[in-house]
Specification:
CATH topology of the domain at 106-283: Neuraminidase
CATH class of the domain at 106-283: Mainly Beta
Number of strands: 19
Number of helices: 1
CATH superfamily of the domain at 106-283: TolB, C-terminal domain
CATH architecture of the domain at 106-283: 6 Propeller
Shape: globular
Largest sheet: 5 strands, antiparallel
Structural class: mainly beta
Radius of gyration: 23 Å
Order of helices and strands: EHEEEEEEEEEEEEEEEEEE
Strand content: 35-45%
Strand order of the largest sheet: 1-2-3-4-5
Helix content: under 10%
Length: 294
């Protein structure tokens, strides 16, 4: 067997905006109509905003899925496809682009014990980094649904992980199973609630809808040591709209969790009660159906 690895470079950039004045000088050629001269003037004025673009690091991998500034001033991020098995990494980097260090290589695709293909990263109040992987963990994916590919199997249902900022203490806090109502395939990272718990969403899994038998995602919570894992809400099991959450949750100042799912903005309490749709994105013109900001 011959194993081939393909490495691609991902650019990490820093943008600094500078606004400058631009002189508007219409062309004086007699053959240009005044309207065209005014149009050129408008274009010159619109281009007055220039940006200084600087590449600070070429990353050995592809698919950056997170980048945050730690409390120590360093940058921490994830690459979806990179590392020893091309299953993603967590990395550390100084703001000037130096000191690049891989904190963890993911290796858990197709049922391995580890996670695979990270999505999202956050620094907890304890100084550790928390995130999710889309695949890896417990083998066997969610049952085939509207967004599933029946030709792919045994990639694992995803994980929640923890790692210290020096790369030590890596551990999996949760391996999603997509069994007995559990979630599967988190597409976004996690957030720390006011109570110190870790909360997130899964794109798939949960309890299948009685109407069509499709699993359309969950909201989950657990402690920072992995204990007290709980599915807080399952989409598609009642008349409330919302399905397939792509984005991270937001912890409100009052302790309530806010999030987005297909066509909706929702809220719920950290213990799972009080789910309510606060806005329907489908009412916008044009409608917004799949918010994916992290």
């Amino acid at each position: 067997m011959v194993r081939i690895r393909i490495k691609e470079k991902t650019q990490l950039v820093r943008l600094n905006s500078q606004t400058q004045r631009a002189a508007c000088v219409p062309r004086r050629a007699a053959f240009l109509p005044l309207l065209q001269a005014a149009f050129v003037c408008g274009l010159l004025t619109a281009s007055a905003h220039e940006t200084n673009y600087q590449v600070i690091k070429f990353l050995d991998g592809m698919g950056p899925t997170a980048l945050i500034e730690g409390k120590d001033g360093n940058l921490y991020g994830t690459l979806h496809t990179a590392g020893e098995k091309a299953e993603g990494v967590v990395f550390k980097l100084k703001q000037d682009g130096s000191g690049y260090t891989v904190l963890h290589h993911f290796t858990g695709c197709r049922g391995g014990g580890d996670g695979s293909n990270p999505h999202g990263l956050v620094e907890g109040s304890d100084g550790a980094l928390y995130g999710t992987t889309k695949y890896g963990g417990v083998p066997g994916r969610a049952p085939v649904g509207a967004f599933e590919d029946p030709g792919i199997s045994d990639l694992g249902n995803g994980t929640v992980f923890k790692v210290n900022k020096n790369g030590s203490g890596y551990s999996l806090l949760r391996r999603f199973t997509c069994r007995n109502g559990d979630g599967s395939m988190p597409y976004a990272g996690v957030v720390e609630g006011r109570d110190g718990g870790v909360y997130g969403t899964t794109f798939d899994g949960g309890i299948a809808s009685a109407a069509n038998g499709i699993h359309v995602g969950t909201v989950f919570g657990l402690n920072k040591d992995g204990s007290r894992y709980q599915v807080l809400y399952t989409f598609g099991t009642n008349t409330a709209p919302g399905a397939r959450p792509w984005a991270s949750l937001v912890a409100g100042s009052e302790g309530t969790l806010y999030g987005t799912a297909m066509s909706t903005v929702f809220k719920l309490n950290p213990e799972g009660s009080g789910y309510r749709v606060v806005f329907k994105l489908s009412s916008l013109s044009p409608p917004a159906l799949s918010p994916a900001s992290k």
